[in-house]
Design a protein that fits this description.
With 53 residues, this protein is of the alpha+beta class. The protein has one domain. The chain is built from one helix and two strands; from the N terminus they run αββ. It has a two-stranded antiparallel sheet with strand order 1-2.
């Protein structure tokens, strides 16, 4: 499982290198879905990994 950790850090997550991150990302054919702004114009922290078509 890949997750992005926002502050404060979660103790149960293991930090990995960017090289390992992209290896897992590519092996699982993932894409990164994110929302730049909320409906009211605030910065959004919504993101998730989805399967590539």
């Amino acid at each position: 499982i890949l997750r992005i950790d926002f502050e404060p850090p979660e103790d149960n997550l293991q930090e990995i290198s960017w090289r390992e991150f992209f290896k897992i990302f590519d092996e699982n054919k993932l894409a990164f879905l994110y929302q730049d702004k909320t409906a009211d114009g605030e910065t959004s922290r919504f993101c998730k990994f989805v399967e590539r078509d």
